[in-house]
Amino acid sequence: TQLLEQSPQFLSIQEGENLTVYCNSSSVFSSLQWYRQEPGEGPVLLVTVVTGGEVKKLKRLTFQFGDARKDSSLHITAAQTGDTGLYLCAGGPLISNFGNEKLTFGTGTRLTIIP
Amino acid sequence: EAGVAQSPRYKIIEKRQSVAFWCNPISGHATLYWYQQILGQGPKLLIQFQNNGVVDDSQLPKDRFSAERLKGVDSTLKIQPAKLEDSAVYLCASRGAYSNEKLFFGSGTQLSVL
Predict the structure, then answer these.
(1) From the CA of B86, how many Å to the nearest CA of chain A?
(2) Secondary structure of residue B85 in the 3-state scheme
(3) How many CB pairs under 8 A join A and B?
(4) Residues of A in Cβ contact (< 8 Å) with B42
(5) Which domains does chain B have, with CATH numbers?
(6) Burial class (CB in 10 A: 0-12, 13-18, 19+), A59
(7) Disulfide check for A2: which of A26, A27, B91, B94 has CB 3.0–4.6 Å away?
(8) In terms of CATH, what superfamily is A5-114?
């Protein structure tokens, strides 16, 4: 069973500060996705990284996939109250049949940005 | 473009009762998933459909949970009888036939079992 551990579990910081959340596993993944989920809603895909060492930027958010494709990080610069939510990483299996893969979701990081 | 529709939004039942959830995926999406998300945790896959066939139901508690996707469009998830530990948000998600396509989630059904 592939497990994805996220840290920290909870994070509360002031608006304008920077933060990093982590997603770690002992398994290798073919791809790694990050989602944000707001209360009462389903997760929304932010980014997909597929190459070891890959870095993607989405405005103030920077996503990195580890060289060994076992871990990932999400860095937010100058956090805003709109960044508040549950951040989930999800890994795609290394070997899968076409269309039959299933994502393994991480344990989540609940981020609160204080005005 | 319409998103993934789920109903009801909330459901409160007593243990041992039955409950059913409904999902209408995005039009044309061949793949449909049901996830269970317990408060404070990440979603856990219950079942995956490809069109109207089951691809993966290895984590579905089959003694009490059932799901179907007749005609390869809408899907229903049923729990009978419900237990206290079934209290969770049940999320439906859909995507196109290819595994690299974006996954879209519905808003979920929040189930409370008393």
Answers:
(1) 18
(2) helix
(3) 60
(4) 4, 6, 88, 90, 105-108
(5) 17-98 (2.60.40.10)
(6) exposed
(7) A27
(8) Immunoglobulins (2.60.40.10)
